[in-house]
Structures
1.
Amino acid sequence: MTSNSILFENVDWIVTQNPRREILRNKSVYIEDGKIVEIGDSKLDADHIINGRGKVLLPGLINSHTHSSMTLFRGYADDMELNHWLEDKIWPLESKLKPHDCYLGSLLACLEMIRFGITCFNDMYIYVDDIAKAVKEIGLRCFLGEVIFDWNIGKQLPYSDKFTKKWLNDDLITPLVNMHAPYSCSDETLLKLKETADKYNILMHMHVSETEKEVRDFQKTRGKTPVEHLDRLGILNDKLIAVHCNWLTNKDVDIFSRRNCSIVHCPVSNMKLANGRMPPLKRIFEKNIRVGLGTDGCASNNNLDMFEEMKVCSLINKFQERDPTFISAQKALDLVTIEPAKIFEIDNKIGSVEKGKIADLILVDFRKSHLHPVHGKNTIISNLVYSCQGSDVDTTIINGKVLMKDREILGIDEEKIFKEVQRAVEKIISN
Ligand SMILES: [Zn+2]
């Protein structure tokens, strides 16, 4: 449903995520041509009026790292060691994927994300032309690039280049350079990809220091950690988004800080694959490094619920640091809204509910037993982080377009997509 103007009226609570982290009571938000025009007591008429009674309005959530098409592998290979999981289960299956499979997997992911209030995601996978088609059809905001390893760079670099040129000025899809990891990309590959990022002035996105083995192997063969190695190569700058980072040394954190890199933390995936520890977030925050949260792919999570991710992030890091004050509910919410907006260089456009920003907004229905009572403003954030589930999201709008209202995804036949996904998966597995 497209609409030139939308009014969210009588919203119980508005969690603005503005610099003062204001929470407003019983206010309205008026949107025109995709942008927030007024927050307050607007009585303006609108093409589309959404009643906010009993609900909480907040900025759409940002999933800073995923592999959307991997919804196809949800539940297919669980409870396995990372290398065995990748080499014996995931990679053989991925080698059989056709472009249309990636389209279907991403379509399924987009539906799940809309339902869980994710309005923007950062994606790394193969056949990104087909993923972009799914994302555009559904209407999410997405950072996307073909994943490059040593073995596919010859074929995929020209494909990636063409993709980048095609989407460079799109309002929803932003191309970026996806280098898989320092252990799967040679120095030559990394330097070539850095050159592409420089050429188009776009972001770079890579898995870094996920496992202890990765770091130990690097130290054994090169006498350096992966981060020290990347720094020596000249790859690190403010465009680099490093994902996982569980095994960063203090020196690595200092390098990331000096080079102004960003970090994405994926606690559920790290716990499921038993990576052994979480990134040293205390030091990372002390050094003012930008941090976002990601679900990672559905094969290692196994859903795209950022509410779950926020809660787990807060709990596991309190546990690791033996400090219950660490990663407060407010901090966890920051890591899925305004902080990642800075990573993706769009904090002037999204990440908070403020006048002039693009309307990427969600409504959470608090008329539920597990979200009562409300002890004033502060419980709102606590309830969002510690008590909510993705399925409590009731309405999702992206770029000023209503994609889901009252839990109904508008104009999409979900059952039909489920059936197509099922057929595609059965074919891949039987081949
Ligand atoms: Zn990943």
2.
Amino acid sequence: MALKRRIFFSSKSIWLGFACAVSVSCASTGESSFREVAVEPDPPHECGFCERLNEPSEPFQIYGDTYYVGTAMISSVLIASDDALVLVNGGMTQTAQQIADNIKELGFSLADLKLIVNTHAHFDHAGGIAALARATGAKVAASARGAEALEQGRPTEDDPQRGLVENVFPPVPEVQIIADGATVSAGEIELTAHYTPAHTPGSVAWTWRSCEDEGCLDIVFADSFSTRSAPEFRFTGGADYQGRIETFRNAIQTVAALPCDILLTPSPLSFGVKEKLAARSENPDTNPFIDSGACAAYAEKAEAGLEKRIAEEQTAQ
Ligand SMILES: [Zn+2]
């Protein structure tokens, strides 16, 4: 199974990936490597579509030290250096074990997880963070508003989805705030936070560079720009929300302007994981995840989605 999965990799990576599966020397090599840590999951999140969201996915290499370790419907991404692992997003509460298993299947040790960052604090991307941080001692980092939501285990007062009853998750006791434009590091891995307040007030696009022999690329894990909200919420309405549309548009433009060779998003559907894996399977010498136009295209779709939402709110008035 492992070999079958790794034929998706570029030819050089096939062997690196395979070697990592049988040797500790090329995975994280700190003293903690392959010390087993157990995840004690929080109670599973209950919702009508949760089972579908948590449908398992094989982990796979995206590029260089960047790997997909999420479910078939919710993205979590691992960045792996010789001295640390970093995770972006933690799925739902019941996804924590799946992420841990995927990390192990790639040949890494969960004990080496040093940092977890979050693009936005909703139940489907932040639910597993508390259990993974507890198991590993990993530091958790987010934007200022993201940290507020993570520490209280529910969206902030001004979050469009605040009123949705399902949107709660296990609180994360201690979250480090990373300022807009600032960096956070674990070992050799360095990520930059770009605040993109839109889908939530605390939304962040995280960027880093990943390298292979062929060169280094700019990776962007942009947040969702979905305008899904609680029924009573209006992006266009109320004194509390003045400037909200402009803030949303600016957030979209922030992502459009980022150096971007590979786009990742909280939903694997939004960056075409299934199609790209199929294309890579057909031609293993190519990497369809590399697409320098992906961030601009994502921003264009987000703009269209926002305009549609504005029109709907105006019609409903
Ligand atoms: Zn969300």
